[in-house]
C-alpha cells in the first residue's frame, strides 16, 4: 500500500531530512510534522521538509498512513502511548531510533489492534542537530536496519522497507536483540570512547591536537541528552563492549610494559588490515570498486 499521508514526529536533522528526501524522490505524500517549538516547525515548512506542522500530537497524526518517530529514544514510550488512540486502523508506525529492543516492546504493548509497528534504524546522521542541518541526500546509499519480530505484520514490513528504499537506502533485517548487541560495538561504544578521549585530555594538550585527534573525536560533538538516552537504553550491551575494550587496552599496556616490539606491531597491523577491509567493503557497497 502506498502511503498518502506521512507524519514525522520530530523535525530535526533526521526528521527534516526524511521530509526533504521524500520531496526529492517525488513521492506523492502530504507531510505533516510535529514539534515542541513553533519556530522549528516554521523553519521546516520554509525549507520544504513538511507541508504543515503542529505542536499538538493528536492533530499531527490524525489520518496518517505512516508515522515516523524521530524524537529522542527516551521519548518513544510516552509518544507511543499518546498517539495510539489517535491512529486510524491500518496505520503503520516506524522510528529512527538507535536502540530497538525497548521501542519494539513498547509499541507491541501499547499500540491498539489494527495499528502496525516496524522498528527501523537508518544508519545516517551527523553530530549536528536541528532542521538547519537537514539534507535531502542524507540517506543516499546508507543502510537502514529493520527489526521485525514474530508479531510484525509482513505487509507493513514490506511497505516500510519500500519507503526507505525509495528515499535512497539499502535495507537489512536483524532481530531487536541482535541489533542492540551489534550496534553497541560499532556505534554506541565509539561515541562513548570519543567522549572519553576528549574528557581525559589536560588543557595544555588540547592546543596541540591535530586533525587525527579531531577526526577520532568528531562524534563527541553529538547532543548529550540524545546520547544519554541511547547509552542507558542499551546499557547491558554497552557495558559489555566497554569491558571488551578495556581488555584489549590492558593487553596493549602489558605489551608496552614488557617492551614487546613485534607484538605491538602485530597488534597495530591487525587493526590496520581489518580497517582496510572495512573500507573496501564500504566501497563495494557504494559501487566504487
Defining key terms:
289 residues, Rossmann fold, 6-phosphogluconate dehydrogenase C-terminal fold, 2 domains, six-stranded parallel sheet, 11 helices, 52% helix
Radius of gyration: 21 Å
Helix share bin: 40-55%
CATH architecture of the largest domain: 3-Layer(aba) Sandwich
Q: Major sheet, described briefly?
A: 6 strands, parallel
Strand order of the largest sheet: 3-2-1-4-5-6
Total number of helices: 11
Series of secondary-structure elements, N-terminal to C-terminal: EHEHEHEHEHEEEHEHHHHH
How is the CATH topology of the largest domain named? Answer: Rossmann fold
The number of strands is 9
Q: What share of residues are in beta strands?
A: 5-15%
**CATH C-level label of the largest domain:** Alpha Beta
- Output mean pLDDT: 94
Measure the end-to-end span.
36 Å
Structural class label: alpha/beta
Q: Give unreliable regions as ranges.
A: none
Number of domains: 2
CATH superfamily of the largest domain: NAD(P)-binding Rossmann-like Domain
Shape: elongated
Q: How do the helices and strands line up, and which of them pair or pack?
A:
Layout: E1 5-9, H1 13-24, E2 30-34, H2 38-47, E3 52-54, H3 57-61, E4 66-69, H4 76-83, E5 92-95, H5 101-110, E6 116-118, E7 120-122, E8 143-146, H6 154-166, E9 170-173, H7 176-200, H8 211-217, H9 224-233, H10 235-258, H11 261-285
Parallel strand pairs: 1-2, 1-4, 2-3, 4-5, 5-6, 8-9
Antiparallel strand pairs: 7-8
